[in-house]
Design brief:
about 450 residues, alpha/beta, Aspartate Aminotransferase, domain 1, Aspartate Aminotransferase, domain 2, 7-stranded mixed β-sheet, two-stranded parallel sheet, 13 strands, binds pyridoxal-5'-phosphate, L-aspartate:2-oxoglutarate aminotransferase activity, pyridoxal phosphate binding, aminotransferase
Amino acid sequence: MLRTRLSNVGLWRSYYTSSLSRVPRAPPDKVLGLSEHFKREKSAKKIDLTVGIYKDAWGKVTTFPSVVKAQKLIESHLELNNNLSYLPITGTKEFQENVLNFLFRESCPQFGPFYLAHDRVSFVQTLSGTGALAVAAKFLALFISKDIWIPDPSWANHKNIFQNNGFENIHRYSYYKDGQVDIDGWIEQLKTFAYTRQSENNKNPPCIILHACCHNPTGLDPTKEQWKKIIDTIYDLKMVPIVDMAYQGLESGDMLRDAYLMRLCLDVEKYPNWSNGLFLCQSFAKNMGLYGERVGSLSVVTPATTNNRNSNLPQQINPLQQNIDSQLKKIVRGMYSSPPGYGSRVVNVVLSNAKLKQQWFKDVDFMVQRLHYVRKEMFDRLGWPALINFAQQHGMFYYTKFSPKQVDTLRNQYFVYLTGDGRLSLSGVNDSNIDYLCEALEAVSKMSELA
Ligand SMILES: Cc1ncc(COP(=O)(O)O)c(C=O)c1O
């Protein structure tokens, strides 16, 4: 009897061991995996142009002057600093008020306040932009849709986040063609899909990711006119927009101006009711340099209900928003319980202090001016016109369109690291490496002409 039991335990153990041993190796992260490789690179000539982190003219990751001042204020005010307790599940009231004020009143002054006044924005303080996307994905997959359209190309993590959080169908829309935004291909694909869905009587609304500005990896954004065409289409097809605003300020250096896509989507005269909501995922990683502090937000703009539709009077209670709030809270509680405190305190100090906010706007503009300088200097050496197409090329990234073989050659022969899709982070370029870098880029670009 005892022997049988023991042998059962043995069987049981081997069953578990073999289950774990069946776990396949996941591929290394396309960006962070390369950084690890770079650290091990021995050549003194090595240049890391992989990660989207701003570095100054000396190649250093710096803290913005506005953030340094905010940190000092936090250090010197015990009441700001001495509470290490848990934050509420969806963040503090103060953070919510500061960020909503910044996003919906200052960045979208014409229509943003209307949504706030009608209690039509559900809000969560998130683990930066990635966390905002993950919470949005979980919510959408549970209640709205398991279909998502992602640009091709896009930030590699988009697919990963939506797949990990319950999305079953990942579609790619053509974004980039011959150095231009493929506006016609993009719209055509969405319409064809919608007609097929209609003929199948499938009423699930698909979601769509829109990069608000500084598209990653191409750096190429639609013009305002192109955005209008796209948003008209998305609205007519009743799709659910997920606006990914990871780089507000890095397009023009003007924080408020860069919220153009949000201003357009919130235009109640053009788009009176996003029937399945509009999801804004926002990050302070890049525009406040708070990368590791993981601070950002998710705002869900809810549709008008019979309660608040056609009314200009603020409603005291919007039950739809309350239901959505409650579900977002439940999702966060099960995912990571509550957000971290320090980064959000820095954001609170910067956003609530007029002088610091002004300094922050200047800091962002300074960063963008340096990126423009790098583009011009590279253009002088390489003569590649897209580098200085300032009307449409924005942000930290330049898309070389190099093949994987060219990217490998750059890495193996010249010790210059780009991401596998040929994306180059301009902030890693400075006066001490620009000549060598441009020689390497030129040599590798010619390699393709001979091939
Ligand atoms: C397009 C895009 N969305 C979202 C993010 C999220 O960044 P984080 O989670 O650091 O805020 C990034 C970061 O690189 C990005 O490029």
